[in-house]
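Hey,

The postdoc asked me to send both predictions to you directly instead of through the lab channel. I've kept everything plain text so nothing gets mangled by the mail client. Protein one:
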Amino acid sequence: MKSTVRAFVAIEISLDVRRVAKKKLAPLQREFPDVKWIDDDNFHVTLKFLGPNVPVVELHKLIAALKRACRSVEQFDLVFEGLGAFPDATNPRTIWIGVTDGVDELRDLATKIDVEFGKLGYPVEGRAFSPHLTIARSRRRDRGDNSARDSRNVDDHRENVATLADRIDDFSDFYWGCCPVDRVVLYSSELERNGAKYEPLASIELAPIGVASLPIEDNFVEEDAVKKTTFDAAKKTELDRERDKLRFTPRPPRNAKSNVRPNDRKTSAPERKKSCKTNIPDLSELDAENLEQILKQEIENAE
């Protein structure tokens, strides 16, 4: 195993955007075969290039730094629109698809990653971050000797460049699609004859929407903390449900006609009414002596 790797951090591009790009760029690829077109499977938006010789033993530190940076950035969307070139369309060394929405979020993410890697000794970017999706690189052919053959090659190349600039301008307002960004990827890059070969080393998720805005003491650092919290909440809800079953045992249904529970109906309503009448003496026809005897008897019975 190699002791060092060529590494960078990037956003992977959604399948929908890559499909549109593959279909729309196919005519340009046929028209300009000398341009080095990047395979759509390798499309990405670079956030930080770490260098050609990153020690493998430091990869775990880089992953930890990415987790610290990503925990404070919420998931967002990127909108890809237009086509352009560096340094400009008349000298298209690098051809790219533009980013119109999600630029601020992407810059914030790149800045946080830059800061965390700076703590590990990696150089901080000195220039402003310019988000773009590189799709091709052209070979420079404006140099040669003074032979007539080289002069013709240079003229042909300049003509092709002018035509390519027109084609780029045709896509200046083209909408390529929207790409959800919910993670960043640490890639290794191996330069080969047919182009670079990318291998994902780690994938770090961004914070769910609403989580990154929590105070730092409420923001979870551990991996899968959000899943754990969701599980704990579900478990607590289940315990509360069981506790409520014990605390609030449902009462038997009442009878609709008599409004008395079935178990209480030992006697019918008329019988209960009759018994109430027989148990209560009619005191209106009793004299004082009889009344006193009745009261004494009731007191004795109560004792």
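Protein two:
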Amino acid sequence: MIRIGIIDLWLNNWHTDHYPEYLRLAARRYGVDIAVTAAWAMYEAPAGCLSNQAWCQRQGIRLTQSEAELIAGADGLLVMGADDCAQHEALAAAALASGKPVYCDKTFAPTWEAARRMFDRAGQFGTPVFTCSAQRYVMELQSFACLLDGRPAAYCATTGPGDLANYSIHQFEMVEYIMGRGARQCLCYPGQGNLHFLYRYGDGRTARITQGEGVPFTMGIYGGGQWRDVAVTDYYMALMYDLCGFFQDKRPRVSRASTLEIMAMQQAARAAAAAHWAWHPVPGAAEGGSHDEANG
């Protein structure tokens, strides 16, 4: 059995409640023996949540006494903390130094600079790192990408709810997946209670992201001479299949360069949201299309 250890701020939250069972189902369908067998949390759960011990009892997972014990007994690691990326660098530090395959849940880091530090730490210890939002695996998005046969889309537009610090990651993940790398500038303008972000790419392409409270997830793509409206659904199982593969072959399914592009676009959006109607550089754009001078 490939034993997976799960690390979180505390254990009773939506992602950590569901990912062990999703991974178990995917492993069964994939025909591999993979399961989350142990868990460790940095803090005890807040009031109104199951205690870490009660959560483990409900899940049939062993609660370790220390993070070091969990890492020592695991073949692969899930670093969660899905709702607080500000603590991800600290939460993931020991896992990134383990040399074992690490999946880090969204949002990978609070800043582009922190993301680079996390990748650099993993590189020092030979730790394979895979991170993404589940929405990267939207079936209709990936299906349209197959039709483009490796070519980036010419334009896309997406809407979604939440905040720029964390939840916006879902939209940025989908945009990078279909547009590829190379965003150079970001401009923000308000409209009808929402914020709209325009991105210019080095080759003249553009993308638009709209964010607002209660705005549904939507996506439209133009590429290969056709327009496609994408239903932002049906993504968790495809992610779980790739996790099964990652924990077997230790090959990240999303590159460092792609993740840094996403972090850079998100950071540029925060700057643009603070100063409307002005173009703001995407961090690292001057270094080239990959936003990553070390690992393209």
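Summary for protein two, as requested: The two ends are 33 Å apart (CA to CA).

Thanks,
C.
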